[in-house]
Write a structure and sequence with these properties.
The complex is a heterodimer. The longest helix of chain A has 18 residues. Chain A has nine helices and 20 strands. Helix content of chain A is about 25%, strand content about 35%. In chain A, strand 11 and strand 12 form a beta hairpin. In chain A, helix 2 packs across helix 3. Chain B has a domain of about 170 residues: MetI-like (MetI-like fold, Orthogonal Bundle). Helices cover about 80% and strands about 0% of the residues of chain B. Chain B has eleven helices and no strands. Classes of the chains: A alpha+beta, B mainly alpha. Chains A and B meet through strand 6 and helix 2 of A and helix 7 and helix 8 of B.
Chain lengths: ~375, ~260
């Protein structure tokens, strides 16, 4: 299998690319780098410009401005078929009139690889996705997961420099999707492929990507590794899109080495030791993850990072018990404060609707995010 | 395709088939009647009427001319129709709907009106080229069939496949040949077949445009009916039916799967 091992992915750099359709700007001045051999996820809601960005890398859409470089060489003017990329489409886009083997061999045939080599390498690619023995089937006779694998084999058979994935698992059910995600991650790492993945599924991005670029309205909101994005989101949007957060608009009242004090309009005080770059005039909000909070029965004496309120409802969610609390005099908090209690704690502590409880959390778990 | 067909559906399909197909058996049965005039049900059995028709110089000439005409019309209709359908389905063209309406209008206007209108135009032009005029007349009538079936297959083409092929390294030319063509081929074939049969069977347009040297089979059949009333008329009609049937069977045999896929 020496021939299919590490192909050495190219470094992809997007330098200020934009794309407009008429008066609508779909992608605005995007700067991004996917390091050689890494997996970069473009994450965002539909219409955020992530697919257009991916299609610009593929060459299926021309940027209105900016440059795309692979290994430092501009490919912006290069037609699609000369870019030597691999791409996985949302609905696989297998050729229905060709067999599995012919599908996988398509890219090799386009590169005038000798016939014998083409067949051998196509079979190797099929073996990599564990589909040996399916060579002569027609795509229509395969299950969704198998079609996905054929598409994968077809995309890597000719050892492209870069692999582009456009919501590749959207059509699979949850269980199969998770399986394929792990398989894909292994395969990409094994082949050292630089991979750019487009998805609206935050979980998928967290599982697959080394770097996540959160997009919104055609712009990059934040780029970082999965953990940093989750633990230190820079904006309300990112904190809300990745995971769940409780938001309390607040203003910065004090900043001193590594610690920040904030006050909400209702007068509650918050302290944060999570590093951030905000200055005093900026419009910010305090964001707290439901799992960062602890609940204590009754009313506690007023303190920073503590809210007292009435339990509204609780909901069993499998691994956690979700509790919603209406804080006293905190009208700006919409809708309610959500707290997750790990299920092993829920046995000895189950807040009932109508009771008064206090939620508190540490300064290290108090996120400060930019308000839009 | 694997679903079981319900009984009411079977009955409906049966009735429709009977109504469409059964009348075709009448001339076939009449053509083997061993009587000097047309009777139904046939009496006796003979193939002599077929012999008579095939030996007839005029009948053979008409048949060959109809074949020639239908072939030219099919080629011309495909040459005009395929790019036209591609343009109408793949691009936003100003006045698209008007163009489509114009092309499909011969299906709405009675053919006999189309025929007489063409004759008047040609007469006003003082133009005398019967074959060309027949080709033009038939093409006007046949083009809607080509456009319709080619458009239908073009609309079914999965654009994603073209993107996929391009990313895999296929140049636009290769994409057209290896990806688009296999998908639209059944539509083009179906359109071409319809076109051929419509031209081969046309009476109302040919009636105005033909002359003694360019005399398609349907016109010949009509003159024979006026002259005599023996079973050779039924034999000519039967031969036309067999010919159309043969054409469909050959297409079905060669491209059977793809036609079935188009229909499904």
């Amino acid at each position: 299998m020496a021939t299919t091992s590490v192909s050495g992915g190219g470094e992809v750099r997007l330098a200020g690319i934009s794309r407009s359709y008429g008066d609508t700007q779909v992608v605005r001045n995007v700067n991004l780098t996917a390091a050689s051999g890494s997996i970069l996820a473009l994450l965002g809601p539909s219409g955020c410009g992530k697919t257009t960005t991916l299609r610009m890398v593929a060459g299926l859409v021309q940027p209105s401005a900016g440059d795309i470089l692979i290994d430092g060489v501009s490919v912006t003017g290069q037609p699609v078929h000369k870019r030597n990329l691999g791409m996985l489409f949302q609905n696989y886009a297998l050729f229905p009139h060709l067999t599995v083997l012919e599908n996988v061999a398509f890219g090799l045939a386009m590169r005038s690889v000798p016939k014998g080599d083409t067949v051998r390498r196509a079979k190797e690619a099929l073996a990599l996705v564990r589909l040996s023995g399916f060579e002569d089937r027609m795509p229509a006779a395969l299950s969704g997961g198998q079609q996905q694998r054929v598409a994968m084999a077809r995309a890597i058979a000719y050892r492209p420099r870069v692999l582009l994935l456009d919501e590749p698992f959207g059509a699979l059910d949850k269980k199969l999707r998770e399986e394929m995600q792990i398989e894909l991650r292994q395969l990409c790492n094994e082949l050292g492929l630089t991979t750019i993945l487009v998805t609206h599924d935050q979980e998928e991005a967290l599982i697959l990507a080394d770097q996540i670029a959160v997009m919104r309205g055609g712009r990059i909101e934040q780029v970082d590794n999965a953990r940093a994005i989750y633990e230190r989101p820079v904006s309300h949007f990112v904190a809300d899109f990745i995971g769940t957060s409780n938001f309390i608009p607040a203003s910065i009242v004090d900043m001193r080495d590594g610690s920040m004090t904030l006050r909400s309009t209702a007068g509650h005080v918050f302290e944060s030791t999570v590093p951030n770059d905000f200055s005093i005039q900026e419009r910010v909000a305090v964001a707290i993850r439901p799992e960062s909070m602890r609940l204590t029965p009754g009313e506690l004496p007023a303190a920073a990072n503590m809210l007292t309120g009435t339990i509204v409802r609780s909901l069993f969610k499998g691994q956690v018990l979700s509790v919603w609390m209406k804080p006293n005099g905190q009208a700006e908090l919409q809708p309610e404060l959500q707290v997750s209690i790990p299920i092993e704690d829920a046995a000895r502590m189950s807040p009932q609707p109508g009771e008064t409880w206090s939620a508190h959390w540490s300064a290290a778990r108090t996120l400060v995010v930019r308000e839009q | 395709m694997n679903e079981t067909v319900s009984l009411p559906l079977k009955i409906t399909v049966g009735i429709i088939l009977a109504l469409v197909v059964a009348p075709l058996f009448v001339p076939v049965l009449m053509s083997i009647s061993d009587t000097p005039y047309i009777v139904f049900p046939p009496q006796g059995f003979t193939l002599k009427w077929y012999g008579e028709v095939l030996a007839n110089h005029e009948a053979r000439g008409s048949f060959l001319f109809s074949l020639e005409l239908a072939t030219i019309v099919t080629v011309v209709s495909l040459l005009l129709g395929v790019p036209c359908a591609a343009g109408l389905t793949r691009y936003r063209v100003p006045g698209q709907d008007a163009v489509l309406g114009l092309i499909l209008s011969p299906l709405i206007v009675p053919l006999i009106v189309t025929g007489v209108a063409l004759l008047q135009v040609f007469a006003l032009m003082g133009w005398r080229a019967t074959l060309m005029q027949l080709v033009i007349g038939h093409t006007v009538v046949c083009l809607p069939y080509v456009i319709r079936s080619v458009s239908a297959s073009l609309l079914l083409v999965n654009r994603n496949l073209e993107d996929a092929a391009a990313v895999l390294g296929a140049s636009p030319h290769v994409v057209a040949m290896k990806v688009i063509w296999p998908q639209v081929r059944p539509g083009i074939l179906a359109g071409g077949t319809f076109c051929f049969i419509v031209s081969f069977d046309d009476y109302p347009v040919s009636m105005w445009l033909a002359d003694g040297n360019h005399f398609p089979v349907p016109l010949y059949l009509y003159t024979v009916i006026e002259r005599s009333f023996d079973p050779s008329i039924a034999a000519i009609a039967s031969l036309m039916i067999f010919f159309a049937l043969l054409l469909v069977l050959v297409i079905e045999k060669v491209f059977g799967l793809s036609l079935a896929r188009l229909a499904s």
